[in-house]
Write a structure and sequence with these properties.
The complex is a heterodimer of chains A (328) and B (385). Chain A is an all-alpha fold and 328 residues long. Chain A contains 14 helices and no strands. Chain B has a three-stranded antiparallel sheet. A three-stranded antiparallel sheet of chain B has the order 6-7-8. Chain B has a two-stranded antiparallel sheet with strand order 4-5. Chain B is globular, with a radius of gyration of 22 Å. Chain B has 385 residues and is an alpha+beta fold. Chain B contains 14 helices and eight strands. Classes of the chains: A mainly alpha (328), B alpha+beta (385). The interface between A and B is medium-sized, with 28 and 28 residues.
Chain lengths: 328, 385
């Protein structure tokens, strides 16, 4: 028993264990999220959604995954094979790392780190490289257009996203996600989402854009670019992009829950349940958006970011600095 | 993309005009024939500068089925089922154009009841066609949900028309001198019930979809079409009416009994994609009005005039223009006095409307081109015939 505890005390062992755990957590969440997405889409569209595989169609994502794994992996003859297959791996790898600093429960902190927020922001910024490689490596014109859109969109939306996050970090005075969550009170009006609703709004819009979800799903705009950057991917090649997209949604929802909704804080029964509940509320909101709105045009998308969100985020940051300065 | 090269077997004849040449910063893109928003099998060659379209050219013929040639190989009656397959979304109008042209040629008087039934079923079919367009257009713009609602409404029409005609999509209900069979007893009741249902749904669509800021941003000021250009290209139907010309064959040609109905022709002067959108939505209401009048004044009597099974119109030619969901349908029949037509010329409105695309898409972004293409409401089988 003592040897086991000693082993667990070693940071490298904890890191590996926590990575494996997070990997399982992502896989489970992606499966559930696919089912939730299809069910919500169904109810929005007056139809039941998946119904027959398992109870209420719960096993439908498993069936989909098995189907995708059974498909042939085709590499475009004219494409760059190494870049082409590096792209899906590069899309998924940073996602796992992004989950490491997530504060699930105040009593459980396996990897204390004081720059957790920076880690998440840095690794989630890597995702766009994979989209770029996918578009370039497949040597397809649709893919290339999708990749070009992805890069421009990512650059445009990372700026207001970071500014809105900074506003919160300044208020909390920390970049440790546990500290930020702990800094907020147990009641909703003590959360940063209520104290600084503008930053919350900007963060949500940018989160939808950063995860390439409708109405900002331009890199894969189906009706324009057939499938954008993943046009040439078949089977699990596409499947991994798909998983990475959903995992990214969970990350941005998790970050939003921590920064703006108090993370694990709640009026009663504090803990991981509040965190999961808040994540799924935000996820439901993102899914709801997708099945409601048409897609914006590319120049409109950039205009929203540069002409509205960035100035607003700067203003918000300035206000946050002033308020934090007055309190100090 | 290059001209077809027999040694490398790359490129084709249609793309020959799109060789890259010295402008290497331009990208040549073949959009279609399998592309999600070129509904069906339209192929468009695009010359792109980044995302901006420098030049666009539609390439046709992927669903050419030789309907005009088939007419010369079959008797007059045998050709009627073909009409339901020219434009599968508004089959009734094509039925009417062909049957009406033959009636005009042979001087056949259509019974009163048949005329009213024709009006009612054609307008029901027009509504179903516009509903498909509405859903598909919003799908092009990235809104997934409206098509489910519009297909739910359309399903009601298909049920009504199935009870009347026996088929759900490619109707061949019209015959020379009337319609094949009388409508079922509950046709009027069901039509009125549907019209009332659609009216309540339309106000919901208007609140939820038409007023949406993103949709307006994607439609307003996109693909502006002036009256002059519309006239030069022979545009008809909602596309022309959205440019401010109140031209409607139902009024101007007054075929059938349309002159006894009261309805307005919705027109907008902006000429952009939003105007075309609004015209079609308004036409849904116009059609509702016409259906109400038709089924409430439905006279009793026979539904088909006496026409010989071996129908032989006298030597000569006749022509009829009908207002289809996409514009003016013209069928021109020439008879040499025999059992088979000498020539049947089908004028598809989609063909002229599609020609506008090169003009409208020039200088727009790829996303706008998709919006423009959708707003023209093209049915490719009708264009190819």
């Amino acid at each position: 028993m003592n040897a086991f505890h000693l082993l667990l005390a070693h940071p490298a062992v904890r890191l590996v264990l926590w990575l494996v755990l997070m990997f399982a957590f992502i896989g489970l969440n992606v499966l559930v999220l696919v089912w939730v997405e299809r069910k919500v889409a169904g109810y929005v569209q007056m139809r039941p959604g998946p119904l027959h595989v398992g109870p209420q169609g719960l096993l439908q994502p498993v069936a989909d995954a098995i189907k995708l794994m059974g498909k042939q992996l085709v590499t475009p003859a004219a494409g760059d094979k190494v870049l082409f297959w590096a792209a899906p791996l590069l899309a998924f790898a940073p996602v796992t790392v992004c989950f490491l600093p997530m504060p699930f429960d105040p009593r459980f902190n396996p990897l204390p780190m004081n720059l957790g927020l920076v880690l998440i922001l840095a690794f989630s910024g890597l995702g766009v490289v994979s989209l770029c490689l996918a578009g370039w490596g497949s040597n397809s014109k649709w893919g290339l257009l999708g990749a070009a859109r992805a890069v421009a969109q990512s650059v445009a939306y990372e700026v207001p996203l970071l500014l809105s996050v900074m506003a919160v970090a300044i208020c909390a005075g920390s970049l440790d996600l546990y500290a930020i969550a702990g800094h907020q009170g147990t009641w909703p009006w003590q959360w940063y989402g209520m104290r600084n609703p503008l930053a919350f709004f900007i963060f949500l819009v940018c989160a939808v854009a950063e995860t390439n979800r409708a109405p900002f799903d331009l890199p894969e705009a189906e009706s324009e670019l057939t499938a954008g950057f993943h046009t040439e991917y078949s089977g699990m090649g596409f499947g991994i992009f798909f998983m990475a997209e959903y995992a990214n949604m969970v990350i941005v929802s998790g970050v939003a829950a921590v920064l703006f909704l108090g993370g694990f804080q709640g009026p009663f029964l504090q803990g991981v349940w509040w965190f999961i509940l808040k994540i799924y509320c935000i996820l439901f909101f993102i899914i709801w958006l997708r099945w409601t709105f048409p897609r914006v045009r590319f120049d409109q998308l950039l205009n929203i970011s540069w002409k509205w969100l960035t100035p607003l985020a700067l203003l918000d940051l300035a206000l946050a600095v002033v308020v934090a300065g007055l309190r100090a | 993309m290059q001209a077809f090269d027999s040694t490398t077997r790359r490129g084709d004849l249609s793309s020959a005009r799109f060789e890259p040449g010295s402008t290497e910063d331009k990208m040549i893109l073949s959009m279609g024939p399998q592309h999600p928003s070129t509904h069906g099998v339209l192929r468009i060659m695009l010359e792109l500068d980044g995302e901006y379209i420098v030049r666009a050219e539609p390439i046709l013929g992927y669903v050419h089925r030789m309907h005009e040639w088939m007419s010369e190989q079959s008797t007059y009656m045998q050709f009627i089922p073909n009409m339901g397959r020219v434009d599968y979304l508004h089959a009734m109008a094509w039925n009417w154009a062909y049957a009406g042209a033959l009636e005009r040629l042979a001087g056949i008087e259509v019974p009163e009841r048949a005329e009213y039934i024709r009006v009612a079923v054609t307008e029901l079919n027009r509504i179903s066609s516009h509903l498909v367009w509405w859903g598909a257009y919003l799908l092009d713009l990235g809104a997934f949900t409206p098509i489910m609602y519009s297909f739910d409404d359309r399903e009601q029409i298909l049920d009504i028309l199935q009870a009347v005609t026996g088929s759900r999509l490619t109707y061949s209900y019209f015959t020379i001198g009337g319609v094949y069979d009388d409508v079922p007893a509950d046709f009027c009741k069901r039509s009125i019930a549907f019209v009332n249902r659609l009216r309540s749904r339309l106000s919901m669509y208007r609140d939820l979809v038409t007023g949406n800021a993103i949709l307006r941003g994607r439609c307003e000021g996109i693909g502006g079409l002036s009256v002059d250009v519309a006239r030069r290209y022979g545009a008809t139907g909602p596309v022309l009416r959205a440019s401010g010309v109140a031209s409607d064959a139902r009024k101007s040609e007054s075929y059938g009994v349309y002159d006894r109905f009261e309805f307005r022709i919705p027109t907008y002067t902006e000429g952009d994609a939003m105007a075309r959108y609004r015209v079609r939505l308004d036409e849904l209401e116009t059609s509702c009005d016409i259906i109400e009048q038709a089924v409430s004044n439905l006279p009793e009597g026979p539904v088909v005039a006496k026409v010989s099974r071996n129908f032989k119109p006298p030597k000569g030619e006749a022509c009829l223009a009908v207002e289809g969901a996409r514009g003016k349908i013209i069928v021109h029949v020439r008879s040499d006095g025999g059992l088979k037509p000498y020539r049947v010329k089908l004028r598809a409105p989609g063909f002229s409307n599609m020609s506008l695309f090169c003009e409208l898409a020039r200088g727009t972004m790829l996303s706008d081109a998709v919006s423009i293409l959708g707003s023209l409401d093209l049915v490719i089988p009708e264009i190819d015939r």
